[in-house]
Amino acid sequence: MKRRRRKDDGFTLIELMIVIAVIGILAIVLVPKFAGVKTSAKLVGVTTNVHELDTYITSQIGNWNAQATSGNAADAIASAAIIANYAGTSPDASKNMTNPISGQTLIESSVASGTVGKAATDAAIICDSGKTPSSLPAGGVVVTITMDTTNTTQISSVSIQGYDNSSKPYGPAVTVTP
Hints:
Blueprint: H1 13-67, H2 73-86, E1 107-109, H3 110-113, E2 124-128, E3 141-147, E4 155-163, E5 169-176
Parallel strand pairs: 1-2, 2-3
Antiparallel strand pairs: 3-4, 4-5
């Protein structure tokens, strides 16, 4: 009697189960690594916002000091200009600044309102030196404007600090001087 040889036209059940098991093991190993990549990407967004504000403030600080005439005029001018540029309300506004953690585009200023930033989801909070926002923005940026002690109409420096998803300082603070 002649034995017939079986033709292998497909996968056996065991082969299929082995492939599924290998894919499952790889998924278990790789999924936690992808979660870290997502957080890292959001923190890169915080660094980008700090650099954008650094570039903008560096280019404008001389103009703000030239326009300031009384009191904290330089603060008000700087705050208004930053808000207008990054909230999309000025004619030359490049884009909205977005908090990469919360997705908010709100930029608050304690200079104009007299109160220190309230929302922990803001893209940026602008405040006078010596004031700290009541809640630091997770994924946001705090811009602190310091006036010259001898000439109170002039800005002596602007400090920019980004915050991570736990509202802790992320990266070094950037200081801009005229």
